[in-house]
Each structure stands twice: as C-alpha cells, then as structure tokens.
Write a structure and sequence with these properties.
By secondary structure, the chain is α+β, with helices and mostly antiparallel strands. It is built from six helices and twelve strands. InterPro entries: GLOD4, GLOD4_C, Glyas_Bleomycin-R_OHBP_Dase, VOC_core.
Amino acid sequence: MAARRALHFVFKVGNRFQTARFCRDVLRMKVLRHEEFEEGCKASCNGPYNGRWSKAMVGIGPEDDHFVELTIMASETTSLATTSWVSRSLLARLSAMLRNPVLKVTLTVSDLQKSLNYWSKLLGMKIYEKDEKRQRALLGYADNQCKLELQGIKGVVDHAAAFGKIAFSCPQKELLGLKDLMKRENHKILTPLVTLDAPGKATVQVVILADLDGHEICFVGDEVGPKGSKLLDDAMTADKSDEWFAKHNKPKASG
C-alpha cells in the first residue's frame, strides 16, 4: 500500500476570514489552492449543505510531497449554524508545529482493536506502534509520511464540538476495489465512486468512507492546484457575507 499517501485533514469552519488570517499570519502557512462553488458537492465535500461554499487548501509545503495541514471549508449556510465545526484548541495545537512538518493526526476511537483491524487490515495501513495500556496505536502508509494515531477512549466519540475529514491519495485503479471491499465487509460508504471536476484542480475520482466511529475518510486519485492565495482573497472580498449577516441581524460564526 506504499502508493497511498496522506494528503490533508479537513476542518469545516463558519468564519473563513478569521481562519484564513490565523493560518497565514500566525501559522505562516501558504494558500496552495482555492475554489468557489455555487452549489453542493456531489461527493458531500461541504457536508449536509446545498448552498454556496468554498474550499481553500493551506499548508507549509506543496501538496505533491507534503501533508497539507488544513482545508478551510465554509458556506453561507454553514455560517448560520450555532456552532463552528472547528475548535480553537485544535488550531492552537497546530501553532506548535510551525517549524516542523506535521508528524501525525490523532483520531479518538471507542474500540482500539476493532479500529486497528479496520485501518490496517481493510485500509492497508502499517502498524508502527501499539500501546494497549495507554490505548494508543500509530499507523501509516510509509515511514516518511504523516502518521495516523488512534487513541482509545471510554464511551462514544462525540463529533459535536469539531468535525473533519482525513484524505489520502490512492491509485485510481484501486478505488473501485476499495469500495467493493467495504461493501462486502458491510462497512459504511458515504460516497461511492464519483468523478469530480472542479476549477483549479484536475478531474479526480473519489470514494468517501466512514470508520467505526464515524470519522470520514476520503480516498482520491490525484491532488493538484495553483494560485490559491489570490483566489481566496478575491472570493472573501466579493462574498459580502458581513453585509448579509447585518441585514438578517444574525451573528457571524467565530473561527
């Protein structure tokens, strides 16, 4: 499974102005790609919202050979939600990685052994470390890639405070087999094999799964894209969201 590679983690946010400022000015990340959409994504990239939304890919290094740390995703409808889908504490922890590459992404799981079977036996990740006493395991597709840490907890994993999606690249020829495997094993498939064609990005095929605790996992065939920072700035200037919220007397979600 060495051909698979960790790509990025997605945070869905209500206020992209604050999030973009934090990522660029505090974390010193660069905007690698930005896209604006007039309607919902057929792969449910923007969650359960059907209105306008945007996506900005930011990171310390290029997508071709770096784990891209964050995807900013927001929509007019998302901003009406009472809670933002990104927690401040999580962004605060990102600031500690300014001078270092991203080493791992941690997901909490309710049953460590069952999750290990899912991620290693079905998704093909190598187990690098396992500590049953601390209920912790470290997995990855290659030694030099960002790792996935599974942390076992008592009880049910709660996605209410913050929610996101981890993405991996995958040879296109493996996507259909991956979908069929999950179907045979009776595991959840959020988006079957679908083709996406977006501005600033090559046409890709995508499969989105959900693990035993509902963590979204996106496998894509390719990842590319230029001119991100200017596209994001232009879109934020043109969206007039502050005027919309003032007109409707609604608070704008905090990033």
